[in-house]
Specification:
The chain is an alpha+beta fold and 472 residues long. The protein is 31% helix and 27% strand. It has two domains: 236 residues, Aminohydrolase, N-terminal nucleophile (Ntn) domain (Glutamine Phosphoribosylpyrophosphate, subunit 1, domain 1, 4-Layer Sandwich); 179 residues, Rossmann fold, CATH 3.40.50. It contains 17 helices and 25 strands. A hairpin with a 2-residue loop joins strand 16 and strand 17.
């Protein structure tokens, strides 16, 4: 759901950011109101996007939507939740670059037309969005946002006179890139996943209904039962108490985004049969095997670095300690109004428990290094707290290339691992030693049957891409 090449105003973020999360429920009873359940599903996906949230609900042959800027519980109080209801609904949480953070780009997008109405919530990025947008504009279709998610809803609406299934297949065959879609009509809930399965999407069951979600933790949050992952290239249509499935693409190489496991997903989720928490613990164990160092304490950078630190500690016999505390209430530093404010935000985001690290050789484990500013800060505050040595271990290979499929990454020139080897990078961040997990080690940690997208490490992408972008 890219918004074009919007620039970050001021200091850009030092972590990769997922673009968004999608959620949907279809109840078999016309009298049931599922909007409160969608609200709780979105709360459980809040980590996937904190800029805007929205819910669209279908009832009595129409689709209504409410959305706004901010966290889910900021956008939806009791009054807002009372404004929409229905037995079927979809929801969306969104992350964007600062330059395109606007209500116009909040989702779900709704299109009302002669045959009915349709709403779309989208996670991912279309690589041919500009081409499709231009063709639709030439055909007289208007746009109110810069999001390629609106391209999808308008394309489905344009083809809807052919029938729902044909409109979906024609649309999905035409768009290219990564997408996990939750689509709502007045009589059906539809899920679709791109042919490579880059973005996650799964199916769940609740009493008298069905659930679609970006992650299995959201199904758990509404008391549902995980059924299965939507397969790459699969469309699910839920209507009239039935779940219909069909494939819209030839068999292609599965290429699930590896960063879902490294960083984005909640640790209590399972994606394509791989337990996220378990994969992070294994990554720590493999780091220990590949690059162990004598130390008195291992700490993880909250939150995704903690399971790996536990694994590293188990494998090496190094005691695990909390060490670093993360403030839950610090906003994204790059949207602060001044450089001084941005620096202050960075300083309060992480702090060290001095009594835990003083006079110790510390191994600190993080999920990735993007620009290096956070790593430098962490090493510095550990030393200031009295750590005798600071050794950094990273649960992903060096990030050297941008993502084009739904992750907000800097330009290649701004990725610190692109311009520095490990020795130079270690010196830059001020650590006593630095090591990254190998690509083979990462794949071993994932321990899954399918393939993975490693484009940001290798520059080899599952879908042809062209150009350089700072936003997916």
């Amino acid at each position: 759901m890219t918004d074009g090449n919007a620039d970050h105003n001021g200091c850009p973020p030092d972590k990769l950011h997922e673009e968004c999360g999608v959620f949907g429920i279809f109840a078999n009873s016309e009298n049931q109101n599922v909007v409160p359940l969608v609200y709780y599903g979105l709360l459980s996906l809040q980590h996937r996007g904190q800029e805007s949230s929205g819910i669209a609900a279908a009832k009595n042959g129409t689709v209504e939507v409410r959305k706004g800027m901010g966290l889910v519980d900021e956008v939806f109080g009791h009054a807002e939740l009372d404004q929409i209801e229905g037995p079927a609904a979809i929801g969306h949480v969104r992350y964007s670059t600062a330059g395109s953070s606007s209500i116009e780009n909040a989702q779900p997008f709704v299109n009302r037309f002669k045959q009915g109405a349709i709403a779309v919530a989208h996670n991912g990025t279309l690589t041919n969005a500009d081409v499709v947008r231009e063709l639709l504009e030439d055909a007289g279709v208007g746009f109110s946002s810069s999001s390629d998610s609106e391209v999808i809803v308008n394309l489905i609406a344009k083809n809807y006179k052919k029938g729902l299934e044909k409109a979906l297949t024609d649309t999905i065959k035409f768009i290219k890139g990564s997408y996990a879609l939750a689509v709502l009509t007045d009589s059906a809930l539809i899920g679709a996943r791109d042919p490579n399965g880059i973005r996650p999407l799964c199916l769940g069951k609740i009493k008298d209904g069905w659930v679609l979600a970006s992650e299995s933790c959201a199904i758990d949050a509404v008391g549902g039962e995980f059924v299965r992952d939507i397969e790459p290239g699969e469309v699910i249509i839920i209507s009239g108490g039935q779940v219909l499935s069909f494939s819209f693409s030839e068999k292609t190489r599965r290429a699930v985004c590896s960063f879902e496991y490294i960083y984005f997903a909640r640790p209590d989720s399972v994606i394509d049969g791989v337990d996220v928490y378990g994969s992070r613990v294994r990554a720590g164990e493999i780091l220990a095997r590949e690059s162990a160092v004598a130390a008195d304490l291992v700490v993880g950078v909250p939150d995704s670095g903690i399971p790996a630190a536990i694994g590293y500690g188990r494998a090496t016999g190094t005691p695990y300690g909390l060490g670093i505390v993360k403030s839950r209430y610090v906003g994204r530093t790059f949207i602060a109004p001044s450089q001084n404010m941005r620096e202050k935000n960075v300083m309060v985001k992480h702090n060290v428990i001095q009594s835990e690290v003083r006079d110790k050789r510390v191994v600190i484990i993080d999920d990735s290094i993007v620009r290096g500013t956070t790593s430098r800060r962490l090493v510095a505050i550990l030393r200031k707290a009295g750590a005798r040595e600071v050794h950094m271990r990273i649960c992903s290979p060096p990030v050297r290339f941008p993502c084009y499929f739904g992750i907000d990454t800097p330009h290649r020139k701004d990725l610190i691992s692109n311009a520095n080897n490990v020795h130079e990078l270690c010196k830059t961040i001020g650590a006593d030693s630095l090591a990254f997990i190998s690509t083979d080690g990462l794949l071993e940690s994932l321990d899954g049957d399918g393939g993975y997208c490693l484009g940001c490490f290798s520059g080899e992408y599952p879908i042809p891409v062209s150009g350089e972008t700072g936003s997916c």
